[in-house]
Fold this protein.
Amino acid sequence: MNNHQAFRADVLRRCGATEAEIEELLRYNQNVFDHSQACPGFPLEDEPFVETWAQYAEASEHDGVFSTLKEQLIQLQFPIQEGISQSDAYQTAIRRGQLNGHAGQHPELELVAPDALRLMLYPTPAGRIPVLITTERSDFVRLVQALTRRNEPQVVPPSMGACMVAGYNNWGRIRALRLAWTAKHPGATEAAWKQAFRRIIPQKALYQDRFILLSDGPYSAVPAASLGLTDAQWRSCSLAIRLEHECAHYFTRRVLGSMRNALFDEVLADYMGLVVAVGRFRADWFLRFMGLERFPHYREGGRLQNYRGKPPLSDRAFELLQTLVYHAAENLERFDARRTLDLSMTQQKAWLLWAISQLTLEQLAAENGATAIEQTVADAVRMYQDVVV
């Protein structure tokens, strides 16, 4: 065991973990982010799909967002229906990009408030990313089911109000590729295009998209009254937290090579969501989101249980995880009270994300966790200033 692992193990041991539980949590809390290479500057250039979504945004000003996207995103031409993903029409559309191949066989997806759907290209340190926002909860659920659940009526948890759609095969972009290829190869056969397409398939940046779905419902299903806010105040704040939360995930995926449904990712993303939306990190709000507002009591239904892992942590390890989360929140609040970085500046937001993402939950929860965060951030700032110079 190296010094880093030994330090983490000691933190867990001080929390009362047995050797078996230490091994379980060291594995669960392993940091998989890749910090081997610093980027020269932020924001990064937009990924290739952003240009296409900018065209969608422009078209939606005249035709509406939902109408525009239905012409481009195949899943929006199918309803949410049990078993539909196994139908021949659906399989043909998804595999071949034939948008109208199911005409007359199924109704299209319907939204309760289609005119309320908004599309924007949001600037982040990792480049702009398309964001779809709806104020109607049932419409958010339908969009999640259509775009990530193969139009099947799978349950979307009430605590879920945002979704990152990743690796989306955009047949509109593929059709554009074919048109460009055909213009260069007039008279080419269908077989020739298929051969050319096989060479395109490994180049996923040419046809795969990433975008965010957001609702403005209460964040983590926490009621406004429990935070001393009006419903309108909390809906607005919830949307801002979700947006920055998902953008933090986008940063770690594009810059650090990973975006997981894991607790450390969520701690980092909630930290960024709160400090940008509220102006500071509020440990009491964060712990309520997680179901730990009455620590050491855990409230069933809190978000923490969504990140228990696969296979799930043992009951005792999950209790220890709650202790780590509680102390990590306290230390993040202490650090943030002394934070000097201006998060309205893209570069400084990136530096903060880069720095904290180098740590582990055990380091955040350690007795000197606030000081460790501060030192890590200071080191990252110096490194990036040297790189930029």
User: Anything to note?
Assistant: The CA atoms of residues 45 and 127 lie 6 Å apart. The radius of gyration is 23 Å. The chain has a mean pLDDT of 93.
